[in-house]
Amino acid sequence: MDLAPKHAQSETDTAHSSNVEQRLKFFMQDVTGRALVMMESATSGQQGIAMDLVQEAFISLHRSYADKSTEEWYPLFYTILNNKLQDWRRKEARRASPFSFFRKVSLDDDEEDAIIDVVDDSTPNPLAFLDQAVTVEEIREAIAQLPTRQQQAFMLRAWEGFDTQTTAQIMNCSEGSVKTHYHRAIQGLRKTLSHLNPYLRGSSDEE
């Protein structure tokens, strides 16, 4: 029996596995910080929960999508992370209300009453609407005060740079909802940060 082909295949598999592990390592280094900020805001500062959600998302990504390119990993990872977050929120909602299993648990408590027709730039800058006197840490604290869906829309659009369509896929909602959540997030941030920057006062209605 000729074992050469199998040996060659084994070496190829090992090299491929090593390449995947290396790509995943760099990918994790790139997104972990931002993902943790997003999850800490979404879980009201529960760092342990946030870390668990991010770690579980990485594990699921590696298990199910190791063959995808690094560029494909970004939206896939945040889609998985969003699903992990929604699962956690459902469990928390049911734990807080023991009889909630008799009714549908609504996680979009900040869902818009009506979709606003707003312009949504394709490559927003998280600092573009703020004076440089406002620090990133102050913005992060203000983001934590936003409703969860607004947090997600802002972080995915402004911090991660996803377009509206990709953000809608990650959040499992319509593009109109993303635009509305993002628009309201910016308004909320301007209002929260206006005391730090007088130039922001009265600007929240200009969107």
TrEMBL record:
PANTHER family: ECF SIGMA FACTOR, RNA POLYMERASE ECF-TYPE SIGMA FACTO. The keyword Zinc-finger does not apply. Keywords: Sigma factor, Transcription, Transcription regulation. Residues 45-95 form the RNA polymerase sigma-70 region domain. Residues 137-186 form the RNA polymerase sigma factor 70 region 4 type domain. Gene3D superfamilies: 1.10.1740.10, Winged helix-like DNA-binding domain superfamily/Winged helix DNA-binding domain (1.10.10.10). CDD domains: Sigma70_r4. It holds the Pfam family Sigma70_r4_2. This is RNA polymerase sigma factor. The keyword Transcription regulation applies. Belongs to the sigma-70 factor family. ECF subfamily. GO terms for molecular function: DNA binding; sigma factor activity. GO terms for biological process: DNA-templated transcription initiation.
